[in-house]
Amino acid sequence: MKIGFASDHRGYKLKMMLMDYFKDKYEIEDYGAYSEESTDYPDFAFKLGEHVASKHVEYGVAICGSGIGISIACNKVRGIRCAKVDSIEDVVATRNDNDANIIAFGEKVDFEKAKELVETFINTPPSTEDKHERRRNKIKEYEEKQ
User: What CA–CA distance (Å, rounded) separates 9 from 3?
Assistant: First the structure.
């Protein structure tokens, strides 16, 4: 399994720690930032989103100061369903209900919690309930019209 990671300068340290932790479990792709020098999160969010949407990587993890800006930018890429998450419950819900393919969180998330968020994200399958599939399909259909 291949996982993509992206951050801005504020999320750089946590991104690097997570990539180092997961490198022995998964194939890892780094879509930037590549240092703590000030950067613009949309540049890296778009790159991550494009690679997830094209299936070059199966899932994405995006980190910025709050997790909000980078999640908004990821969601501008057609085919991306990125959720800003704060808890395991958020992760399970967004995988079950929305089949999210990228999660985002802020730089201040504790490393141990961040590991758990990513592991839960990767290991939680989407729901096959009709109501969830119907709702996801409505989103896809709307997106295709745009």
Answer: 20
